[in-house]
Amino acid sequence: MCGIVGYIGTRQAYPILIKGLHRLEYRGYDSAGISLINESGDLLVYKAKGKVSALKASTEGCDTHGTIGIAHTRWATHGEPNQANAHPHYSQSHMLALVHNGIIENYKSLRAELEHHGMIFCSDTDTEVLVQLVEYMQTTHQCDTYTAVHLALKNVVGAYAIAVLDKRNPGQLIAARKGSPLIIGVGKDNETCPAGESEFFIGSDATPIIEFTDKVIYLKDEEVVMINRHGKCAITNLDSVSQTPQLCTLQLSLDQIEKGGFDHFMLKEIFEQPSAIRTCIRGRVNTQEHRVLLSGIQDHCAQFKSAKRIIICACGTSWHSALIGKYFIEEATQIPVEVEYASEFRYRNPALSPSDIVVAVSQSGETADTLAAIQLAKEHGCFVYGISNVIGASIPRASDSGTYLHVGPEIGVASTKAFTGQVITLIMFGLAIAQERKTLPTELFNQLIDDLALIPDKMQWVLDHTGDISQLAKIFTYCHNFIYLGRGYNYPVALEGALKLKEISYIHAEGYPAAEMKHGPIALVDEEMPVVVIAPKRGMYDKIVSNIQEIKSRKGRILSIVTEGDVTVKEMSDFCIEVPDTRDSYAPLLTVIPLQLLSYHIAIAKGRNVDQPRNLAKSVTVE
Ligand code: F6R
Q1: Which residue's CA lies nearest to atom 13 of ligand 1?
Q2: Class for the domain spanning 3-256
Q3: Backbone φ/ψ region at 578: left (φ over 0), alpha (ψ -120 to 50), beta
Q4: Which CATH number fits domain 466-611: 3.40.50.10490, 3.30.200.20, 3.40.1000.10, 2.40.40.20?
Q5: Residue with CA nearest ligand 1 atom 3
Q6: Could you tell me the pTM of the whole model?
Q7: Please, are residues 561 and 591 in contact by the beta-carbon 8 Å criterion?
Q8: 596 CB less than 6 Å from ligand 1?
Q9: Rounded to 5 degrees, what are φ and ψ at 481?
């Protein structure tokens, strides 16, 4: 939630910051703002309600000069999305400007205290409390801004990534983090350039930075950094003890974060799935030796051999992939697997023991609830395994071991390639444990490996045959409700299909296990109701055929996803999309693709902004 970008150096900051905000817009787009210190030493703040384009339009003709600046794109938590609540926020004296991602939980008591000391607030945000608190500390302790930031943050409960500009010190930028991500980009030529010509970038993630440098420092929790024009990058903890920065090289390229000829990131990411999944399994699924190589498991073999239970914590789409993972891991390893909504798990008092393995599944690796769930698991001594797409994100860093998806950056807010990446990673996870525990007959294990390696080509087949379902989508554009049905491995696909439709087209949709219909939801079915049935040939095919008959006799309109060559379900359906045959447990990797495309095309037909659906943001770093 919320994106932060910052720059200090010799170039004009404004274009760098605006471009950075565009790249971070997937994190929130309720309002945007920018702060610069111009050549005359004025601390300028410009803010606008709405997207970054609105901010850009509102600054036309304004003074946007300056070689230092911070900027923000907001996903509102405290205070409605209007101009006053947009970041950056000034301190009372207008000497400081601050941007923030996260939530200050004790902001009410801090605000009351500051108001008691005469400070006047201009917004409803928790963020304004931070900037006022820094100023208050500065005044009462007669200290510099860097020290005041430390003092202020020691009084704060909650999560933050912040960046601060100080009008009196236009040569330095201060930033800090706890619980929300922040990366520092170190200018390519910093080591060789003369003093006064070095540059630094800051970003909530690497996307605003990668165009300029691949050298980064991941700020750790409760670290405060001061960077200046002379190449200085001082990092301390909240007690002002100096920390040693670790310089890392980004594994990201610019073309990975651009649309590459597609109209939307979501469509690009749907079509990237065959190559993304190929990369995900490369070097991990070995068809020559029939082995799965996941170092996160092999390096902790004893832990996985003795595990009594696996608990998977996740949210949203990641929770759906976790459910598929549960079915497969239990089948392959005979270890009981539970799937928990991280947001519920973290506030329960779950019975956990050190023989439990807790798996966190998160595309962003930053979801606050999932992060809190693994912190709880660690307190109980559980071994934590992180499955994430974003390298260096908080969840993989907080885990004992784990696996990256390696499906490339996912920018569209609706998750697509990360879902299939998570499913296949959980399948590899199950196979790797089965390999260690020898819970599968060799012949079956080898077949599972061979079939897995065929999935990218089969995904390509789906895309080649159903790539354009825009005509079909138009038929459904005016429907107000949808039902999605599946059984077994395809029940979570029904949930995922319904979620995709809801989030980008704003059409109400529900996913059910098909057999549950008769226990209530079938009352909803009439000739107006489209029912999407995921009915591949294997698994509980005969059972789902009966479920379709029940819908048909209530005049529901059936759109089915079937195995290539299927006749029975096809004849019962009003519309039908085929996918290639694969084993039951791998079917979700194929059946989900037509559902992703269907929701994309319905949303387009309805004129929705598919990459930035209303009220949503890509990375949910607030609870
Ligand atoms: C839906 C979607 C969300 C995320 C959820 C968890 O398309 O993207 O439901 O799956 O917010 O996010 P991660 O996986 O980053 O933890």
Answers
A1: 362
A2: alpha beta
A3: beta
A4: 3.40.50.10490
A5: 316
A6: 0.82
A7: yes
A8: no
A9: -140, 150
